[in-house]
Design brief:
Layout (H helix, E strand, L loop, with lengths): L11 E5 L6 H7 L4 E7 L4 H13 L3 E8 L4 H9 L7 E6 L1 H14 L3 E5 L11 E6 L2 E6 L5 E5 H5 L3 H28 L5 H15 L6 H21 L8 H12 L6 H16 L3 H10 L2 H6 L3 E2 H10 L17 H10 L7 E2 L1
Parallel strand pairs: 1-8, 2-3, 2-4, 4-5, 5-8, 9-10
Antiparallel strand pairs: 6-7
The structure holds zinc ion.
C-alpha cells in the first residue's frame, strides 16, 4: 500500500469571482463563529476589508488576527501556543507564508483550516504539507489538508503577474512529474497510483488546452493547483505534483546566488525535463509562451552555470526517487538545450 491513513479532502470548495465577500457565510454554515485569522502582512486593504465585512455580516468574530511576514517553524509554534481557546477554526488569507503558518497552526491545534489564497503562485494552498523554515532552511512538514478552499478568481486575476506565472510553472510540473513517476515504475518497480495521476494530469490538461490568463484561465489554474494537492493526499506522496523538475528547483534554492520564485524555476525546469523525457514539450512550451511566462523569465535570465550545477546535484537530493535524471547522464543534452532551444536560449546567460 502507498498509504494507510485516511484520506481527507476539502469539503468546501469555492472558486469564483467575489468569493472573498462570502467567506463569512461559508464559515457560518460550518458553525465556525470564532476564528483565528492569519493574513499576509501588507495585504491590500480592499482584500482584508472585504473579509472583515463578510465576517461582520455573518456574525463571525476573529478572536485573533495575526499579520504574517515570516514562515519560521518557531513562529508557527508560538502562534499555536498563543491561540485563544475559543478559536473554532483557522483561516489563512493571502500568500504562501501566511497560508503555510495558518495550516501548521491548524494542524497542531487539530482545528478545521480554511485556505483563502489571494494569488496562485504554487499548489501549496491545498497540499497536506506546510513549507516552513528551520534554521533558515526550507522544510516541508506534514500538516493537514484544508477543510475549505476559497479562491476569489477576480482577486487572483489582479495579483502581481509574476505570482500567477509562478503558478503556471508549478502547473507545468504535473506533466513531467507524472512521466517521472511512470519511469520509476518501469525502471524501479515503484507503484503508480493511477487515480492520483489521472486527477493531477487531467486537471492540468484543462489549462494546457486553453493557456490564457483571463478569468476562465484563472479558474482552470486554481482548479488544477487545488486538485494537484488533493492528488498528493490521495496517494500519500508528492509524486503526482513533483518530479525531477522540482529536484532541479530545490537544488537551485540551495546553491543559486539568487533563487527565484518556486514556480518560475519549476516551470523552466519542467520544460527542460520534458525535452529529456520527450513528453509534450511542444504543448508545454506553447503554454508558457501564450501566458507570457517565457517573456517574464527572459526579462531576468537565469545563469547557465548555476543550472548545470543544479541539474548535476538534483538526482542526489532525494533517496530512492527515480526520475528521468536517473536514466542517464543528461548534462550534455541539457547544455545543448539551454544554448539552442527556441525558448530556453532566451532565458539563460553565461
Ligand atoms: Zn511546486
Amino acid at each position: 500500500m502507498l498509504h494507510s491513513t485516511r484520506v481527507t479532502i476539502p469539503t468546501l470548495v469555492r472558486i469564483k469571482p467575489g468569493a472573498l465577500a462570502r467567506l463569512g457565510i461559508y464559515l457560518g454554515r460550518g458553525q465556525h463563529q470564532a476564528v483565528a485569522l492569519f493574513q499576509s502582512a501588507g495585504l491590500l486593504p480592499e482584500i482584508s476589508g472585504a473579509v472583515h465585512d463578510s465576517f461582520r455580516s455573518a456574525n463571525i468574530s476573529a478572536v485573533r488576527s495575526v499579520d504574517v511576514s515570516q514562515n519560521d517553524f518557531e513562529f508557527a509554534v508560538a502562534q499555536f501556543r498563543d491561540l485563544p481557546a475559543s478559536a473554532r477554526a483557522i483561516v489563512g488569507l493571502g500568500g504562501g507564508k501566511a497560508l503555510d503558518v495558518a495550516k501548521y497552526v491548524a494542524f497542531l491545534a487539530r482545528l478545521p483550516y480554511f485556505a483563502v489564497p489571494t494569488s496562485l503562485s504554487n499548489d501549496g494552498f491545498s497540499s497536506p504539507q506546510s513549507s516552513l523554515t528551520m534554521d533558515g532552511k526550507r522544510k516541508s512538514l506534514p500538516a493537514a489538508m484544508p477543510q475549505g478552499v476559497v479562491v476569489d478568481t477576480s482577486t487572483c486575476a489582479r495579483a502581481p503577474r509574476n505570482l500567477t506565472l509562478s503558478g503556471v510553472g508549478d502547473l507545468a510540473a504535473k506533466f513531467t512529474a507524472i512521466r517521472d513517476w511512470k519511469l520509476a515504475f518501469h525502471h524501479a518497480g515503484e507503484r503508480v497510483d493511477d487515480f492520483a495521476a489521472l486527477l493531477a494530469e487531467s486537471s492540468a490538461q484543462a489549462f494546457l488546452g486553453r493557456p490564457l490568463l483571463d478569468e476562465q484561465g484563472i479558474h482552470h489554474l486554481a482548479t488544477s493547483l487545488l486538485v494537484s494537492g488533493i492528488a498528493m493526499e490521495v496517494c500519500g506522496s508528492s509524486r503526482p505534483a513533483s518530479g525531477s523538475e522540482h529536484l532541479i528547483s530545490h537544488a537551485l534554492d540551495e546553491t543559486s546566488a539568487r533563487p527565484r520564485l518556486h514556480g518560475l524555476q519549476v516551470g523552466v525546469a519542467a520544460y527542460l525535463v520534458s525535452l529529456l523525457q520527450q513528453n509534450q514539450s511542444e504543448a508545454i512550451g506553447n503554454m508558457l509562451e501564450q501566458t507570457g511566462f517565457w517573456n517574464e523569465i527572459a526579462a531576468d535570465p537565469f545563469s547557465t552555470a548555476e543550472w548545470l550545477e543544479a541539474v548535476r546535484r538534483a538526482p542526489s537530493l532525494k533517496e530512492n526517487f527515480f526520475t528521468v535524471l536517473s536514466t542517464r547522464d543528461t548534462i550534455t543534452e541539457v547544455e545543448a538545450a539551454l544554448r539552442t532551444d527556441v525558448y530556453l536560449k532566451r532565458c539563460f546567460v553565461e
